[in-house]
Amino acid sequence: MLEIKNLNASINNREILKGLNISIKPGELHAIMGPNGSGKSTLANVLSGKEGYKISGELNYLGKSLNEISIDERAQKGIFLAFQYPTEIPGVNTSNFLRTSLNKVRKAQGKKEIDALSFLKLVKEKSDELGMDEKMLTRQLNVGFSGGEKKKNEILQMKILDPSLIILDETDSGLDIDALKIVADGVNSARDKKKSFLVITHYQRLLNFIKPDFVHVLADGKIVKSGTKELAMELEKTGYKGIN
Amino acid sequence: MLDLKIHSNEIDKIGKFSKEEKDYRIKNLNYFNDIGLPNKKDEDWKFSDLNAIVSKNFKKLNLKLGKSDNPKINFIKEFEHNYIVIINGKLTASDFKYEEKNKIDLKPFTNEDYSNKKENNPLVNLNHALSHEGFFLEVKENYKFNKVLVIYYFYTDDLDENLLNSKNKIKIGNNSEIHFVDFIVNESKRNFFNNIYEEIILEESSTLKNIYLQNDKSPGYFHKYTKNKLSSGSNLSSFIFPTGLKFNKLDLEFDLEGENSVCNIQSAAFLNEYDHQEVKTRVNHLYPNCKSYQKVKNVLNDNSKGVYQGKIFVKDVAQKTDAYQLSKAVLLNERSEFNSKPELEIYADDVKCSHGSTSGSLDKDSIYYLMTRGLSKKESTKLLVESFLNEIIESIKSSSLRNFIKTKLENQLKNEHKKH
What we know:
The complex is a heterodimer. In chain A, a hairpin with a 2-residue loop joins strand 1 (about 1-10) and strand 2 (about 15-25). Chain A has a single domain, classed as P-loop containing nucleotide triphosphate hydrolases (Rossmann fold, 3-Layer(aba) Sandwich), CATH 3.40.50.300. The longest helix of chain A is centred in the middle third of the chain and has 15 residues, at about 95-110. By secondary structure, chain A is an alpha/beta fold. Chain A has helices at about 40-50, 70-75, 95-110, 115-130, 145-160, 175-190, 230-240, and strands at about 1-10, 15-25, 30-35, 55-60, 65, 80, 165-170, 195-200, 215-220, 220-225. Chain B is α/β, with parallel strands linked by helices. Chain B has one domain (about 10-365). Chain B has helices at about 10-15, 20-35, 50-55, 120-130, 365-370, 375-395, 400-420; strands at about 80-85, 90-95, 105-110, 135-140, 150-155, 165-170, 175-185, 190-200, 205-215, 220-230, 235-240, 245-255, 260-270, 275-285, 290-300, 305-315, 320-330, 335-345, 350-360. In chain B, a hairpin with a 2-residue loop joins strand 1 and strand 2. Chain B is globular. The mean pLDDT of chain B is about 95. The interface of A and B includes residues 87 and 157 of A.
């Protein structure tokens, strides 16, 4: 699904990622943990195609290079990034935006555009699963949403767009335990043999609810240790300093 | 340079006038000729050098109008309405089928006031000197219109470097209410200059809601001066959507001359190519307990230029004034330009006045977020521009009018989208 080899990324002449390697197969969920400033969010940004980074190394998705592929095309090809801080966009109606987004992705994948009625049905089903009030969707995109509502809205988008590679950037940050459970359930119910997940998190807490197949520790722009979920437990005890 | 001195014998060509009226016109013409078309040295025209703009785009200004056949008007079908048709400034037709006829008076404009002075705006003197078309509309006391009135300002396809001057006056009686749309339909493919003088009088406790809208893009150069007079308890809201003309300056003055009068001015414009648009307002708070609200939003692309000059004047007796003014501009191109000049002149001590002005490019994070959801950069930009301007449209209460204006804006943006 995703093959990253010797990935380097710098911004404003500052090196952030320094030779990162990772390989994710279909159906796998990988967690990336690391201290502040280790390059976690940069990795998420680079995978999404965000501009402004100088990049070298290989970045292959479904066997093809992602170089030269724009942000929107990546989304259309099934890469989804759930933001750590979803952007508030005044004046844009959440529901209309979701439909536009879904139809863009469907069209790119050669599917028919969804009609208004089927869309409403789909949204109702998915937002019910997340315990979201549908009224939220009549509001402006992320404007005035609480931290939890914003994160749920990200997971809702993930469920509706049905992507193949999902990157969750610190989705657990700012969530209370109830919201965390709902979000984790949302992720767990979306897992299947075809989808791959890259879960970026600072704390082990989220991994109590979302069981990873592999855990990697990112420090100073590189993966310094990889293992299974026991590694996360170990980290919780020793802290990041105990790793190197 | 274009010679802009206008000879007094042009007045005789317009028509036969009483000595009093002719003197009035000649005096006004002299006032205009002293200054000519204003240039950027004039503070009020600092950002819109009309002299330079006209010199650049016109070889002459033709005062004589050809005799064109009455054109076919495509009436708006989206909502039921009364109408007035003005062709090249002249009152041509009207229908008030939804109203009580004896409550309404409509006739061609006739001047009754020959007092004259050198106006701050020389185009007003020019209008006084040469204008001979226009209308007078009066809504009698205690009458509320059942349906909206659309005033079709139609400009014919034979206009070619013409200078049009016309005058309108609208008077709304005590406790009456009218909603009207100034709908500008321009068939001309060539440049012409249109100079309108307007007087709007709101008597006690009357209400006026007005929308100013262009049907399409056109090579018109427009200037309009409007004097709005608000008596006590009256309420005026004006929604301005000036997108479409090559040049447009709206010089709007509001006199709050009675307690508890309220005026609300909102504008949303999308400018591209070499469009140049200015909204200039002056709100005069002359009595206590009045309220004024202004919000002006502009999106500028290509080489377009937008200007907002907004002045709030509060007289010493006008205590408890509540005045607000906000201008927001989004520039999509480094060649586009926006100038904003807010001004407060306050002589009362117990007032609430605030103003703000921002301009910048679209938020990069918003574009990034939308793109990660599969929208292209263009689509993201379009969505953000639309939502920026829609905020103004959303505050129009009538859903049929709101949708009509939204569709117009969407089409303008769609055309823009195709072009690039």
